From TrEMBL:
It is an enzyme of class 1 (oxidoreductase). Belongs to the short-chain dehydrogenases/reductases (SDR) family. Residues 3-193 form the Ketoreductase domain. Its EC number is 1.1.-.-. Keywords: Oxidoreductase. It comes from Amycolatopsis mongoliensis. This is SDR family oxidoreductase. GO terms for molecular function: oxidoreductase activity. InterPro entries: KR_dom, NAD(P)-bd_dom_sf, SDR_fam, SDR_oxidoreductase. CDD domains: 17beta-HSD-like_SDR_c. PANTHER family: OXIDOREDUCTASE, SHORT CHAIN DEHYDROGENASE. Pfam families: adh_short. It comes from the Bacteria.
């Protein structure tokens, strides 16, 4: 059955491709992006072109998960247009790279804000509608890194994803009684088709870039080498998007609670 879906962070990578895969599956999809009138204007145009080319219902909506007003306005406009909202895909996120002694509390707060608190802003806007419908689905794009570990210099990002994952697990139990389903998508490291990893070579705060360069020269290369050890070259986020869309299409009751997507798995 066709659903009304919003995907956060849909200007690139997993979000952009999931929005397209879901639209191709016959759903009405709102690709949530921040700065649609500025930096992401080309992504808005690309989504419109995709919709035209494939004859699918893919729309874009301004949605910056770092602001409650933005989340409220985005969800409000979708419900005003469609009369309902069925699925929220919590995908927006980013990482930052730095050694343990250098991350400031402000930098950690910023990572938690985008990766975990941002989803909560969208929940605050969307859940009243899903609860009133007594039907809906939250899809959380978590990460295999929530268990911590490699590559190094990413601990605050891993911790922020772990916070998001924990919210997903606890809310699932709370929301099931209102007919709201939960699926947690858990990708390993996929380095192709995403802007995720170039960001990892960037210090958490541009202002301290020079200091990092001086003190931690080659740190980004080190992470790159570690990544190459744990993920096959060219592992493409398209695989994550296809799997996410497949799971959303399953009937309630048949949807897995947690879906691990391994870049090394050819299946
Ligand atoms: P990308 O960097 O390609 O995509 C991240 C998306 O999040 C972009 O659309 C970006 O928008 C958006 N975003 C960042 N901040 C905000 C914000 N404040 N409001 C709205 N959107 C925002 O990376 P991926 O597609 O690879 O990652 C998507 C998700 O998957 C992330 O949550 C990531 O943690 C997770 N993940 C990725 C893995 C991978 O291997 N690629 C592995 C495990 C998890 P903009 O373009 O405007 O910056």
């Amino acid at each position: 059955m066709s659903k009304i879906i919003v995907v956060t962070g849909a200007s690139s990578g997993i979000g952009a491709l999931s929005a397209r895969a879901l639209a191709r599956a016959g759903h009405t999809v709102y690709a949530g992006m921040r700065d649609t009138g500025g930096r992401n204007a080309p992504q808005v145009e690309a989504a419109a072109e995709f919709a035209k080319e494939h004859g699918v219902d893919l729309r874009t909506v301004e949605l910056d998960v770092s602001g409650q007003d933005s989340a409220d306005a985005a969800i409000g406009s979708i419900v005003a247009e469609q009369g309902r909202l069925d699925v929220v895909v919590h995908n927006a996120g980013h990482m930052a790279l730095g050694p343990a002694e250098a991350f400031t509390p402000e930098q950690l707060a910023e990572l938690y804000d985008t990766n975990a608190i941002g989803a909560q802003r969208v929940n605050r806007a969307a859940l009243p509608h899903l609860r009133a419908q007594r039907d809906g689905l939250l899809v959380w794009v978590s990460s295999s890194s929530v268990r911590g570990g490699t590559p190094p210099y990413l601990a605050p990002y891993f911790a922020a994803k772990a916070a998001m994952d924990s919210l997903a697990v606890s809310y699932a139990a709370e929301l099931a009684r209102f007919g709201i389903d939960t699926t947690i998508v858990v990708p390993g490291a996929f380095t192709a088709g995403t802007n995720h990893f170039p960001h990892a070579g960037r210090p958490a705060d541009q202002a301290v870039e020079a200091a990092y360069e001086e003190r931690y020269a080659g740190l980004g290369d080190h992470v790159g080498r570690k990544l190459a050890e744990i993920t096959p070259p060219g592992a493409d986020v398209a695989k994550v998007a296809e799997e996410l869309a497949r799971v959303v299409g399953l009937p309630k009751g048949e949807r897995p609670f947690r879906v691990h997507i391994d870049p090394a798995d050819d299946g």
